[in-house]
Design a protein that fits this description.
Blueprint (H helix, E strand, L loop, with lengths): L3 H7 L4 E9 L3 H4 L2 H14 L9 E5 L7 E8 L2 E8 L4 E8 L5 H11 L4 E9 L1
Antiparallel strand pairs: 1-5, 1-6, 2-3, 3-4, 4-5
InterPro entries: AdoMetDC_fam_prok, S-AdoMet_deCO2ase_core
GO biological process, one term: spermidine biosynthetic process
Organism: Candidatus Sediminicultor quintus
C-alpha cells in the first residue's frame, strides 16, 4: 500500500488533490440532494476537515449527457466539489486541501457511500 503521508511530507507539499471517479453508483443516492449533503458532512468528519458555510447542491440538466447534481463545499483548508451524471450513474469528486488527509480513506468512503461498483482514484501533490 502506498504511503501517501510520507510522500506528502517528504515533498513538502502545499496541498493535496484527490480525484475520485465512481462508476455505476446507486441511482437513487446520486439523485438525492440531501444524501449528497450528508455525504459531504460525513466525509468532512472522517478526514477531519471543517466545513465553511453550507454545501451547495444544484441540478443542471440542459445537456442530457451531463445532466445531474453538482456539489461544492468550501472547507477551511480549501474545497470539495463533485458532479453526478444521471445518464451513466457515474460521479466525479475532487477533494483539495492544504491540510493532509488520507486519499485512500476518502476514496473508499466515497465508493461505499454512493454504492459504486468501481472506483478510480488519482492524487496530485500541489506546491
Amino acid at each position: 500500500m502506498k504511503n501517501f503521508k510520507k510522500e506528502y511530507y517528504a515533498n513538502k507539499a502545499w496541498g493535496l488533490l484527490t480525484s475520485v471517479d465512481l462508476y455505476n453508483c446507486d441511482p437513487q443516492i446520486i439523485r438525492d440532494a440531501e444524501a449528497i449533503k450528508r455525504y459531504v458532512k460525513e466525509l468532512c468528519e472522517l478526514i477531519e476537515m471543517k466545513q465553511f458555510g453550507d454545501t451547495q447542491v444544484v441540478h443542471f440538466g440542459e445537456d442530457e449527457r451531463v445532466a445531474g447534481f453538482s456539489m461544492v463545499q468550501l472547507i477551511e483548508t480549501s474545497l470539495i466539489s463533485g458532479h453526478f451524471a444521471n445518464s451513466t450513474n457515474n460521479a466525479y469528486i475532487d477533494i483539495f486541501s492544504c491540510k493532509y488527509y488520507e486519499p485512500s480513506v476518502a476514496a473508499e468512503f466515497t465508493k461505499k457511500f454512493f454504492e459504486a461498483k468501481e472506483v478510480k482514484m488519482h492524487y496530485i501533490l500541489r506546491g
